[in-house]
Amino acid sequence: MTSHTATQAVHPLTKDDFKPDGPVKWCAGCGDYAILAAIMTVLVDLGGRKEDLVFVSGIGCSSRFPYYINTYGFHGLHGRGAAIATGIKIANPSLQVWHITGDGDSMAIGGNHFIHTVRRNIDMNIVIFNNRIYGLTKGQYSPTSPKGLVTKSSPDGVIESPFTPGELVMGAQGTFFARAVDTDPKMLRAVLKAAALHKGTSVVEVLQNCVIFNHQTHAAVTNKETKDDNQLFLEAGKPMLFGKNKKKGIIRRNNRLKVGIIGEDGVTMDDILVHDPTDPEDMTHYNLVRMGLPEFPVAMGVIRSCDCIESYDQLYEQQVAAARQKSHIKCMDDLLNSGNILDL
C-alpha cells in the first residue's frame, strides 16, 4: 500500500491493531491523544498492511509518537525527521511514510529539512503538532509563538514575528496543505485522510493544546463560544462561509481578501468566494493560510491540494530505471570484466 492507494488487507485492520503494548505517556489532557486516535482511525479506513507503514519523528513531545503506534517507526534526532523519512521513502517507495513533528522540531532546527522536503514533493505525510511552545524542554518560546508571549526564555515577552507553517509550504512550492484543531475529531480525520491520499508531500498543521506550558493557546478558535466566528472550514466547491448563521463570508475587494456580511454593504452570496484547493496558480491559497484573528477567521480544512508537480520519488525511480537501461554494466561481473572499474 502506498499513501495514495488503499489496498485491502487479508485481515482488515482495527484500531486495536495499532495500539502499543506499553502505556502512552503524554500529559493528561494533551491534544496529542486526539491526533493519535485520529491517525489510527484513518489508517483503518485506508486499509492495507501494518508492515507497509512507518512513522518517523525528531525530538519533542510529538516525537514520542512512533512509540505509541504499533507500526514500524524511527525516533530520530532533533529536526532531522524529514531527512530520515526522505531516505526511507527513496529506499523503499512502496512504504507509506508519516513524519510526525512539532512546531519547534520542524520550524526551527529542522526548518531547512522541512522546506526542502516540501520543495522536492516527496510522497510522504508531514503532521505538525503546533502548540506554539517547546513543551518537552519545559516551556521556552518556539518559532510559532505569538509576539508578547511570556515564557521561561522570554520573560519580557516574545519580540520576534512568528512563522506561519502554511506560508512556508506555499513558499516552498508545496502541493498540499491543510489545517485542523485537536478538539474536532471529525475535521481532523477528514484532513488526515485527504493528506494520506495525496500524491506528493502533504503537510497537515494541527492546532494542538499543551495543557502544562501553553494552555488554551488556541482557545479563540476552539472554544464553543467563539469558534463559529473564528473558524472558516473550507470545502472544495463550496462558498467560504462562517459564523453561527453562515452570514459571514470571504470576499475579494481591490484584489484583497476581506470579510463580508451577506445583506450588508451590498454583499450577496454571489460575492462570496468559492473554494478550489486544486488550482495550482491560485494565490488565494497563500492568502488563506495567512488569515488570522482578529481581522479574519482562521482557515481550516484542506487549503491546497493540487497535482501540479510530480513527486520526487516517482521521478527518482524513473531516472534510475533510465540510467540502468542505457548502461552496459548490468551486474557485478560486467563491472569486473569491463577493464575499468570507473567505467559505469
Tell me about this structure.
With 344 residues, the chain is of the alpha/beta class. The chain has a domain of 203 residues: 3-Layer(aba) Sandwich (Rossmann fold). It is 28% helix and 17% strand. The protein is built from 11 helices and 11 strands. It has an 8-stranded mixed sheet, sandwiched between helices. The chain is globular. The protein starts with 31 loop residues before the first helix and ends in an 8-residue tail after the last helix.
How far is the N terminus from the C terminus? 34 Å
At the fold tier of CATH, the topology name of the domain at 15-217 is: Rossmann fold
Q: What series of H and E elements makes up the topology?
A: HEEHEHHEHEHEHHEEEEHEHH
Q: What is the CATH class name of the domain at 15-217?
A: Alpha Beta
CATH superfamily of the domain at 15-217: Thiamin diphosphate (ThDP)-binding fold, Pyr/PP domains
Largest sheet entry? 8 strands, mixed
Features of this protein?
single chain; 344 residues; alpha/beta; Rossmann fold; eight-stranded mixed sheet; three-stranded antiparallel sheet; 11 strands; globular; disordered N terminus
Gist?
The chain has 344 residues and is an alpha/beta fold. It contains eleven helices and eleven strands.
